[in-house]
């Protein structure tokens, strides 16, 4: 084979490599060197293909961007009572549940979740009927965890009357530094993981008409995780006493009462707390 034929063959192979494109199959059929390209050669779509792939797999965040946990991380590091060895079962479970809560609070679509098996997921709280992944995502983690069967006149928080946004706004307002979470003990390993946990923050903002006390708010609880072979959650059971949480949040005086005391108005005596009837 003379050098001119070798040059033509090399040029054809080169063109074929440039034309190969997994999203534009017609380019893969352009196998001759006789095509006259507008810009002298087959188009290269590497950049736009990368953009397409990134956008296709792009996570849609509820607030437009990934969450910033600097404040609550600082709260956690300052207030944690257990420091688990890196890579231990306790640290692994602690991080997994934090990631699970992050996804339900900040991601919009279940297909973007990495910590759960969406088809099998169920959340059980204090022995109540389980909630599916779609139901939990729609309600929001606060409403899902605070659902109860008390008569409405005895409910200090009514999840049925709260939206995802209003529930998160209420607790972000009350606990502006965040609501930290830690594992206190792990009693069994995968695939069924039993554990004890602690949840805490500082009541430094208004909550449902109650003035802040500045005091720590915390509660303890027990949980059971059922995970698959990839450690994705299929079921989670949570047991805790909501009274521990609300007992602290309702200690602050009603804001109307606080204002009247500061102003010297004695009409505060005539006003009753809307949460205690």
TrEMBL record:
UniProt superkingdom = Eukaryota
The name of this protein is Pathogen-related protein
Organism encoding this protein: Arabis alpina
């Amino acid at each position: 084979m003379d050098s001119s034929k070798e040059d033509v063959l090399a040029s054809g192979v080169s063109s074929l490599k440039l034309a190969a494109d997994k999203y534009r199959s017609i380019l893969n059929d352009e196998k001759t060197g006789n095509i006259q390209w507008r810009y002298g050669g087959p188009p290269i779509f590497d950049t736009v293909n990368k953009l397409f792939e990134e956008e296709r797999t792009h996570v849609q965040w509820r607030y437009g961007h990934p969450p910033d946990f600097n404040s609550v991380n600082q709260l956690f590091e300052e207030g944690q009572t257990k420091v688990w060895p890196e890579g231990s079962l306790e640290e692994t479970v602690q991080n997994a549940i934090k990631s699970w809560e992050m996804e339900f609070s900040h991601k919009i679509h279940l297909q973007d979740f990495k910590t759960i098996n969406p088809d099998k997921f169920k959340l059980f709280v204090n022995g109540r009927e389980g909630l599916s992944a779609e139901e939990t995502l729609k309600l929001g983690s606060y409403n899902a965890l605070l659902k109860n069967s008390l008569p409405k006149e005895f409910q200090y928080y009514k999840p049925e009357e709260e939206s995802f946004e209003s529930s998160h706004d209420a607790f972000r307002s009350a606990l502006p530094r965040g609501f930290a979470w830690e594992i206190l003990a792990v009693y069994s390993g995968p695939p069924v993981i039993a554990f004890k946990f602690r949840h805490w923050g500082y009541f430094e903002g208004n909550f449902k008409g109650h003035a802040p006390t500045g005091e720590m708010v915390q509660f303890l609880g027990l949980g059971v995780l059922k995970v698959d072979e990839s450690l994705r959650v299929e079921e989670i059971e949570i047991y805790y006493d909501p009274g521990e949480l609300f007992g602290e949040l309702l200690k602050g005086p009603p804001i109307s009462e606080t204002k009247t005391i500061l102003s010297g108005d004695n009409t505060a005596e005539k006003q009753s707390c809307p949460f205690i009837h």
